[in-house]
């Protein structure tokens, strides 16, 4: 039995080593082990499962292999009885083959964290990259890399896949070839300003997420001494208690003097029915409708029941009008020390950063009664101050005013500074037809309407991207970075305007690459360009930001084309990519569809039967090209659509027009 135990043990150890991580083959191993225990005559000779078993190897104990001459017939019979059954060798060989096949089939590339910039979270001698994106390397030799930088008191981390044989800016080439560990140990590298460290690793998924420093190297090591910690706690407790008491006292003082804080007063208008509320699919500016009465006309007069603005709340008494343009009202020019006389009526849209209200702005008295103008008010909570400030700076730049950009009236701060219910307002023009997404849901477009509306969108985007105004005055180009159908309003059945500039970015030449890198991966996943999904934007080329907008615009143009009567049978409205993704797809699912599968919305052959639609579809496909540099510019798109409109007006046969736009021309004006 000892020799049987040794032989089975060796056999099992050999097989278990081969299939150490192959859980699926444990049942097969158990069968072999069981059959070994059932046998009673095994030698301790080592068996090689890769070559099978020979008769000599299975000789019974006490006899020399190959010494069969002179043996009795009974001995030969015993030999045959002690020979292992054929299935033993077959099972061992099958086990090894399956283990080898499964081992090779599980070969995979390194999975690495991949962000152009992220803010690490550090404790003691370890930092975590805080990167939320991961990607498989494209070549099996590529390793995971992390580059840590510290400038002044700001730390950033760049994570990616990289082939060690290729040079990496600022990193010693010989160092890359030495990164073979499964952990990312940081190695200092010379830097022009601040500090820089690099690490590389492979063989472990997302191994470049955890960055290991020599103790204290990252500048964030904490005091660990048992003697120091009590001293620190004793030192901090008194100031913390004083701060808590002071805060509580201030809160009770404010509550007793001004009353309990609350949201802005929203009294109902006498004699008017409560309006129906609605919320678009993704409507950051869903309530920016055209002024009632058409063409910028004022809203209805109102009659005696409407009354004037009577009384002010605590929020209104602290309101501050920061900027007013576009002649809000002749009655109020020069009288803007307090808040604008605006009354909120109903929420008509709700986005990521703000709510949009339909409101009325008092214009003055006429024929014994007050007159009002319907406006849209975008209300930001205190926590979204940065988004409000960014959007205000875009809207208030008079060089960005354009017929195809939503008209801006005023910006206000409402509520006392530091007040829990402080709000930030943007007062904008009101467009009754709603946003483009809602409009397309319930309306079909004629061919003329499609070309006119698409041309107006391209003109608005071209004006943003241009470095001069239509009159030739220099201006800073702006990238919208969130172009989609719910961020476009319909002014009329032949004109649209861009809105929602909360994520817009000024492409100022004075900004550095780091400034642009810190802007992050923004936008709506469904409309993100491939290079944004892949986090591989060329930050040194400002045109790259503009071409992201062009890709997004192409998806909007496809949505418009899908609702045009010129294509024949028109189906119900679907956003770009339709049912290929969920209603609100995440970045990962869009990355699989757009990057891995090179997917784009379908353009059926029936669409191209119409001559004009054929040119329109060709323009769309050139705008969503995978290569940003191969895409048309917004200015070229304007040229294409201008040519289509001219051909329609002249009644000539439609020819494909190649844009002759040069950088000095401005066809969008």
UniProtKB/TrEMBL annotation:
Gene name as annotated: LOC115413063
Membrane-related topology note: Single-pass type I membrane protein
Enzyme Commission number(s) of this protein: 2.7.11.30
Protein name according to UniProt: Serine/threonine-protein kinase receptor
Organism ancestry: Eukaryota, Metazoa, Chordata, Craniata, Vertebrata
Binding site for ATP: 378
One GO process term, biological-process aspect: cellular response to growth factor stimulus
Top EC group: transferase
Main location group: membrane
Keywords: ATP-binding, Growth regulation, Kinase, Magnesium, Manganese, Membrane, Metal-binding, Nucleotide-binding, Receptor, Serine/threonine-protein kinase, Signal, Transferase, Transmembrane, Transmembrane helix
GO MF annotation terms: ATP binding; metal ion binding; transforming growth factor beta receptor activity, type II
All copies of domain Protein kinase, residue ranges: 342-644
Organism annotation: Sphaeramia orbicularis (orbiculate cardinalfish)
Domain of life: Eukaryota
Catalysed reactions, as listed in the record: L-threonyl-[receptor-protein] + ATP = O-phospho-L-threonyl-[receptor-protein] + ADP + H(+)
Family: Belongs to the protein kinase superfamily. TKL Ser/Thr protein kinase family. TGFB receptor subfamily.
Segments traversing the membrane: 228-253
Region (Disordered): 44-78, 284-313
